Amino acid sequence: MADLTGINILIVEDEEMLLELMIEEFQAAGAFVLASTTGSEALEKFKQNHFHALITDIHIPDGNGNWLVEEVCKMTENPPAIFLCSGVEFSYETEDCPHICAVFRKPIKISEILREVKRFFS
């Protein structure tokens, strides 16, 4: 398991079951995790907290992952961002967003995302 002690992560996902699983796995790896189900809620959490990384679904209520990452990058030093997507949007949306460090297609393997986040901070 990746050791993410001292790493603060914001996870934005509107699928509740997936969100809960990701929270559990990242907390078990030592990360401090906050979660949001909408873009506006995520942006507020970013304004109020310091995060080392952002994991977001591309399609989120009241926004999209590209918009969220662009807004976050205006407020902070471009934290590593990971997109979660369901398929076809991978080819056209992420090409226009240079702040994305990795993209995972659903269904995802949380262990692979953990490894990628650990790689950012090793």
Give the helices and strands, then pairings:
Elements: E1 8-12, H1 16-28, E2 32-36, H2 39-48, E3 53-57, E4 59-60, E5 63-64, H3 65-75, E6 81-85, H4 89-93, E7 100-105, H5 110-120
Parallel strand pairs: 1-2, 1-3, 3-6, 6-7
Antiparallel strand pairs: 4-5
Helix pairs in contact: 2-3
In the CATH hierarchy, the third-tier topology is known as Rossmann fold
Could you name the CATH homologous superfamily?
Response regulator
Mean pLDDT: 88
Poorly predicted segments: none
Number of helical segments? 5
**Share in helix:** 40-55%
CATH class bucket: Alpha Beta
- Structural shape: globular
What does this structure look like?
This protein has 122 residues and is an alpha/beta fold. It has a single domain, classed as Response regulator (Rossmann fold). It contains 5 helices and 7 strands. It has a 5-stranded parallel β-sheet with strand order 2-1-3-6-7, with helices on both faces. Helix 1 (16-28) links the parallel strand 1 (8-12) and strand 2. Helix 2 (39-48) runs parallel beside helix 3. The longest helix is centred in the first third of the chain and has 13 residues, at 16-28. The radius of gyration is 13 Å and the shape is globular.
